[in-house]
Structures are given as structure tokens and as C-alpha cells.
Amino acid sequence: GLKERPAATARGRITQRVHGAMLVELLCGDGGAIQAPLYATGAIDDSFGGAYEAEADFAFAWIAAEVDAVDPYRRALSNALRAVAERGLDAGALERCRRRFLGRHLRTFNTPEGLAGWMQGLALDDLAPGALLDALRAASLPALRRRLRALVAAPRAWSILDPRTGNEDRSAGH
Predict the structure, then answer these.
(1) Which of 6, 47, 91, 168 is the most buried (most CB within 10 A)?
(2) How far is Cα 159 from Cα 63, in angstroms, rounded to an integer?
(3) Which residues pair with residue 61 across a beta bridge?
(4) How many Å apart are CA 18 and CA 84, to the nearest integer?
(5) Rg of the chain's alpha carbons, rounded to an integer?
């Protein structure tokens, strides 16, 4: 897990959530900036994935995979994150990601339950209906690169579950 300080305002949190989720998708989604090279070298398999969570009291990204050798995976993942933070993200990939997120948002309106959940979320966060679209529009290569660099520099927590022994190791650090 990559820990981040939560945004102080509801508007900041929606931007943090959207940009964090976009960043994780750009990195860990199929063909993502770290998924593709790690998959190509055999460091990961189809179990690899990640997500971003943010609320008033917490914010973090998690990345997970089932691997046989933990230490090589940990090194490969850390190196891949640093490499992408240095070179930056692809503009075309960002635009495709933005369109996917917009499509997901539009599908919210396909069902009464989806619409009700969206409206409830807005009311609970005291946000205007356009806040999510504003956050999508504000997602830029420089903004996401800053977020990625901050996440790469942030404290990390590693949790390793060994199903062969049932042992769990939770460690912090880079």
C-alpha cells in the first residue's frame, strides 16, 4: 500500500479519488505503465491489480499480486514505479483513461440504483453534480506525474500472506 495524506475538503477529495483511481489504472490496468513490463518479464501474472481509496480520514493506493518469490517482486515493483515516476505517463494513455472514466460515469445513469447512489454520494460529500467531471477535466500529465512522484516517495506498507504456511508478514517501509 502507498499511503497519502487525505485532502482537506470534499472538492479536494473528489479530485484526489478521481486522479488516484486514474493513476492506478494507468499503472496497473491491462497494458499499464508498470503492469506491461512486469508481465513481460514474468514478475507478475493475471492476478496483478490495484485500486485507490480516499475518504476524509485516509487515502492510499494498493497494488497486489500472487507471486512465488516475494523479494524479487517487491524489487521489480519498486523499480517499475520509480521508472515511471521519472519518465512520466503517456498522453494518449491518459486520454483513453479519461474517456473510460467518463463512460463509467455516464453508465451511472443507466439504472435508478446507480443514479440514486451517485446523488447520495454528492449529498453526503456536499458536492455539486459537476464535481466529478471537473476532476476528470483537471487530470493532466503534470498533475498525475506529481501525484505519482508523491506516492512513490510516500510511506509503504507491505502485507504478505503465505498460503503454504498460513503466515502473514506485515512490514512497513520502502
Answers:
(1) 6
(2) 11
(3) 2, 52
(4) 19
(5) 17
